[in-house]
Each structure stands twice: as structure tokens, then as C-alpha cells.
């Protein structure tokens, strides 16, 4: 349990909540999530929400979320001082030891886990210096409505591109990057993977799979993903996977022709 510190509506879609989280704030790793629930009316199952930001010094975690149903609606109506039940952090997060040119591509509320990643990479650069490992981080955010948190994302990356109402995947050239990391609707991530494959960069893409989840710890198998290596759980084995592992059914351009010839 942790007290809510702030719970702010940012635009027609997005809310930003900050809560006391104790040790979870120290353990939190970019790409991980917490299972949230609150109040007596809440649905039986807690809801998975990505860690947007973590501040170990104050023992707080922040979550960027969209009100889409009963659970998130209850959370959206909570006030500072209300108690939030928060379990986690869970899951395997993003790679963080990459060097070279890195792109982070988020669509809709899929932008949420990319902030902590960009922040941690910016902190790493501040310590090691860009020249030390050639790390640059470009962030691409796609919104269908009013964009949010542009200044915050802009402050933790080298270049920020914001797409409003179009396809954020159109703005990214995967061949220009050594590592590409994405979170958003599955169709958006598949389009980006197809683009990576077409540019010979299929192995550079990592995706965060937002499957429906129940337990959050790999027991109930609700979030089973079919992968190139058999079935895995998005909550424990993921949510972050190599795109090639979970989108193995996407053929590289020309592959069908080669197979048939
Ligand atoms: C690892 C992970 C991280 C996530 N991070 C965030 C986040 O940072 N911010 C955020 O707003 N949401 C995030 N989600 C999605 C979030 O869990 C769902 O929106 C939430 O569970 C909906 O609960 P509800 O009771 O409000 O809606 P429900 O009444 O349960 O569902 C309402 C609608 O939302 C859809 N929905 C429910 N769960 C999901 C899901 N997992 N993925 C896609 N659509 C779903 C349902 O199909 C339905 O149309 C994440 C999901 C996962 C698995």
C-alpha cells in the first residue's frame, strides 16, 4: 500500500499518478510494471501499469495511464492521500547497456515505459560522456490527440519527434539506428518490425508486449505469448522481447519468394 501524492489529468486521454512505493522505487527498472488496485469497488484482478518514473530518493513511483475501463476509471478518481495497492515491480525490462544510436518509439499510452528508459540512459551518458560509448537517444512519440509531456521527454533525449494524428512509424528510419525499442499497439510494433526487416535491421528491434494479465508473476498463463522458442508469459518472461522472437510470423521481404523457389 502507498499513499497517492498526485493524480493529475493531463489531457482528454492521459493521467499521471505519483504514489509512495517504498522499496519498489529502488528496485524499479525501465520497462517493468506494477499491478495496481484500489478501493472496494475495484475489479477482482489488479491492473498492470508500466513504471513511468521512479525516484528512489523519495521512494515514489509514477504511472502514466489512460482511463479505458472500470479499473483505470476508479484510479482516475482517486485523490492525494488515498491508498493505492501497488505490487511489483514485475517483468523483464528493456535492455539498458546498448551503445551507439538508439531510437525509442512509443504510440499512445505505449510512450509510458520509454520515459524511465530515456532518463536512465541520459543519466548513464552524463556519467560516461557521449564520446565514451557513442550513445545517442532519439525519442519518437505518436499521439492521436493532444500531445503530453513533450518537455519532460525532450529533456532526457538527444532529439524528440512528436507525431500527432499520423503514423509515428513513418518518422523512423530503423537503418539509422543500432538499437530500436518500441511500445504501443501491437499493429504499430508489427509495422515497425516490417520496416526493420525491409531495411535489414530486424535484429535491432525490441518490443514491449501489453497482453492482458491476471497474476503478474507467471503462474496463471493468461498473458501467454507464442514465440519462436515456444510459449512464454508476457508478465514474467517479458513484457520486453526481441521483436524477432514474438513476431516470428512476419516474413522478411523476399523470404516467401525464396522459400517457393
Ligand atoms: C505490461 C503492461 C503494461 C501496461 N502499461 C500501461 C500503462 O503504462 N498505462 C496504461 O494506461 N495502460 C497500460 N497497460 C494496459 C492496462 O493494463 C489496461 O488498460 C488496464 O488493465 C485496463 O483495465 P480497466 O479495468 O480500466 O479496463 P477493462 O474494463 O479491463 O478493459 C477496458 C478496455 O481496455 C482493453 N484492455 C484491457 N487490458 C488491456 C491490455 N493489457 N492491453 C490493451 N488493451 C487492454 C480491453 O480490451 C477493453 O477494451 C499495460 C498493460 C500491460 C500488460
Task: Summarize the structure in words.
This protein has 261 residues and is an alpha/beta fold. The protein folds into 2 domains: 2-90, Elongation Factor Tu (Ef-tu), domain 3 (Beta Barrel); 101-246, 3-Layer(aba) Sandwich (Rossmann fold). It is built from 8 helices and 15 strands. The chain has a 7-stranded antiparallel beta sheet with strand order 4-3-7-1-2-6-5. It starts with a strand and ends with a helix. Mean pLDDT is 90; it is low at 256-261. Bound molecules: flavin-adenine dinucleotide.
Q: What is the count of structural domains? A: 2
The CATH topology name of the largest domain reads: Rossmann fold
Distance between the termini: 61 Å
**Shape-level CATH architecture of the largest domain:** 3-Layer(aba) Sandwich
Say how many strands there are: 15
CATH class of the largest domain: Alpha Beta
- DSSP strand (E) fraction? 25-35%
**If helices are DSSP runs of H or I spanning 4 or more residues, what is the number of helices?**
8
Q: Which whole number gives the mean pLDDT?
A: 90
Query: Biggest sheet, in brief?
Result: 7 strands, antiparallel
Radius of gyration: 18 Å
Uncertain runs with pLDDT below 50, 5 residues or more? 256-261
Secondary structure category:
alpha/beta
Label the overall shape: globular
Order of helices and strands: EEHEEEEHEEHHEHEEHEEEEHH
In summary, what is this structure?
This protein is an alpha/beta fold. 23% of the residues lie in helices and 32% in strands.
Amino acid at each position: 500500500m502507498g499513499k497517492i501524492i498526485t493524480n493529475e489529468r493531463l489531457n482528454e486521454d492521459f493521467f499521471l499518478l505519483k504514489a509512495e512505493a517504498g522499496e519498489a522505487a529502488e528496485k524499479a527498472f525501465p520497462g517493468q510494471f506494477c499491478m495496481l488496485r484500489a478501493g472496494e469497488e475495484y475489479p477482482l484482478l489488479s491492473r498492470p501499469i508500466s513504471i513511468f518514473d521512479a525516484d528512489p530518493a523519495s521512494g515514489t513511483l509514477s504511472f502514466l495511464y489512460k482511463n479505458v475501463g472500470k479499473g483505470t476509471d476508479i484510479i482516475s478518481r482517486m485523490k492525494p492521500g488515498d491508498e493505492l495497492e501497488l505490487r511489483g515491480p514485475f517483468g523483464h525490462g528493456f535492455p539498458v547497456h546498448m551503445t551507439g544510436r538508439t531510437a525509442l518509439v512509443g504510440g499512445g499510452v505505449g510512450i509510458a515505459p520509454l520515459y524511465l528508459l530515456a532518463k536512465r540512459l541520459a543519466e548513464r551518458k552524463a556519467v560516461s560522456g557521449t564520446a565514451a560509448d557513442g550513445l545517442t537517444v532519439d525519442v519518437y512519440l505518436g499521439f492521436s490527440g493532444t500531445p503530453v509531456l513533450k518537455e519532460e521527454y525532450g529533456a532526457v533525449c538527444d532529439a524528440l519527434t512528436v507525431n500527432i494524428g499520423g503514423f509515428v512509424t513513418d518518422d523512423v528510419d530503423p537503418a539509422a539506428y543500432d538499437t530500436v525499442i518500441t511500445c504501443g499497439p501491437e499493429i504499430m510494433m508489427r509495422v515497425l518490425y516490417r520496416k526493420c526487416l525491409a531495411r535489414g535491421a530486424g535484429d535491432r528491434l525490441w518490443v514491449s508486449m501489453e497482453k492482458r494479465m491476471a497474476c503478474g508473476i507467471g503462474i496463471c498463463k493468461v498473458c501467454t505469448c507464442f514465440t519462436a522458442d515456444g510459449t512464454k508469459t508476457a508478465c514474467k518472461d517479458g513484457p520486453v522481447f526481441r521483436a524477432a522472437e514474438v513476431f516470428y510470423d512476419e516474413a522478411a521481404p523476399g523470404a516467401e519468394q525464396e522459400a517457393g523457389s
